[in-house]
């Protein structure tokens, strides 16, 4: 076996023995679908026989969220909409185990003697993180289907759904997670302390993006008068629409947010027809292709910095 | 072909010099002690040889390859306090290292655990291990892939006397199999019982490289101390003073005197010739600690 696969094998061996791996899996595979099933059951109990369901709206809603397809969809969409996104929590926890704890347990001096090839060590750890993210995502898909199947026994749901699109969403979100993995590894490696590294992973991108948004909005902002107020408003809206298209956080969850964005796009299209175009503010102007380019660029940048730093760092 | 070569090995941290142009060679199968007070540069030198830190200047070579490089796969190390994943058992920590290295069969894990007498505690989590058990597990891990070179930094730290003796026996057994061992320590008694050759470092500079006996005797070359006892103490002191020596009384019948080595052999004969009834004459042999202290204090430093 090559040095690289030796590292992957060792890191998987370690992660299997780490309790937090099972906590993350439990939250994603068990807690989330259980909550969705409970919500579905409550909706049916309280509203199925009411006037609200005269046109079948409640049944449609329950099918949308609590069917096998619906729960599996929520498994990939939901984690992108909590704050901080569950994806970043998962990746940061993995980075803490794979990179951060090596420093806190003083394990680098052992690892880099057992496996002196630093490129193999870094690549092995990154690939291990991606594999585990893939397993957790795949598990969310499977558990969503399994819980949804159980739900069909007591809910008015079926197995109907756009399964091909869902699978594509899962695969894309897994691929986009590479940028989050690269970022988390870089931050945790740079920080001398695991806790500081995690705080950086969770909050630094949002903080920098917010600060830059404020800066970009303020720069060039002229005193408002009755003549320029309209133009200033347009400029501000343009800034707020355009900036997120370059932001890390707006792009790395793009696949998972796409289904909701499509829904938002349909909604704002009606508003746009009435002369109120809100699509940009809701982020629906970020296409998956563009998001892939932006996320890829971020991933390359973070990987380059991480590799440069890791290969030349002295080990304490 | 030497197993370990350091050529002008230097490490600076800003303006501070941790290791200053250390050069030495260690042959295959040698068991060499690396002596130096805390902060002398022992650990930094070992880290450079293990490829963990990059030298500012010079180079380290292990098994005829520059470090860092593939030859490090044939090196076992235990640098400073051995570190482990506390949530894993001792055996799992070894399994992790074995997977990382590759090519280590499961039975080898049993062998090294048995070798360091940790086989019965191997399924306990490391967080429950004592300091001594961690040291043993660290030694077991350093032997896991049957290395050709062992770099050990203070391997007996925190061990009780029985543990120290056991580790010493282990290292002798390993060296007997042809493994090159460079073992650092600031506990001189430990090194004295283990090795034949010494590298001594002080303030980052290598101040001695040679046989253990030569270190002791070389430092003995400038002056020799005798402890003498005679039936008449005052007569002994008077006779020594008559020989232009400066005796220090030791009890009623004894005296201590330091003199140039060239005069030492004739001392007792001259005292007898002066009519002194010499009951005992004992030459003080400098032990390693004395020799070492004189070395690092600059007193009697070899030229």
How would you describe the overall organization of this protein?
The complex is a heterodimer of chains A (about 325) and B (about 300). With about 325 residues, chain A is mainly α. Chain A contains 13 helices and no strands. Chain A has helices at about 5-15, 20-45, 55-65, 70-80, 85-105, 110-115, 120-150, 165-190, 195-220, 230-240, 250, 255-275, 290-310. In chain A, helix 2 crosses helix 4 (about 70-80). Chain A is flat and about 70 Å long. The model of chain A has no long low-confidence stretch (mean pLDDT about 90). Chain B has about 300 residues and is an alpha/beta fold. Chain B is built from eleven helices and 14 strands. In chain B, strands 6-7-8-3-9-10 form a six-stranded mixed sheet, sandwiched between helices. In chain B, helix 2 crosses helix 3 and helix 7 packs across helix 11 (about 290-295). Chain B is elongated and about 75 Å long. The model of chain B is unreliable at about 300-303 (pLDDT under 50). Chains A and B meet through helix 1 and helix 6 of A and strand 6 and helix 2 of B.
Count, helices of chain A: 13
Class per helix and strand makeup of chain B: alpha/beta
| Anisotropy-based shape of chain B | elongated
Give the oligomeric state of the chains in this entry, treating copies of one chain as homo and distinct chains as hetero: heterodimer
Spatial extent as radius of gyration of chain A: 23 Å
H/E element sequence of chain A: HHHHHHHHHHHHH
Main β-sheet description of chain B: 6 strands, mixed
Mean pLDDT of chain A: 89
What is the CA-CA span between the terminal residues of chain B? 28 Å
Work out the helicity level of chain B. Answer: 25-40%
Class inferred from helices and paired strands of chain A: mainly alpha
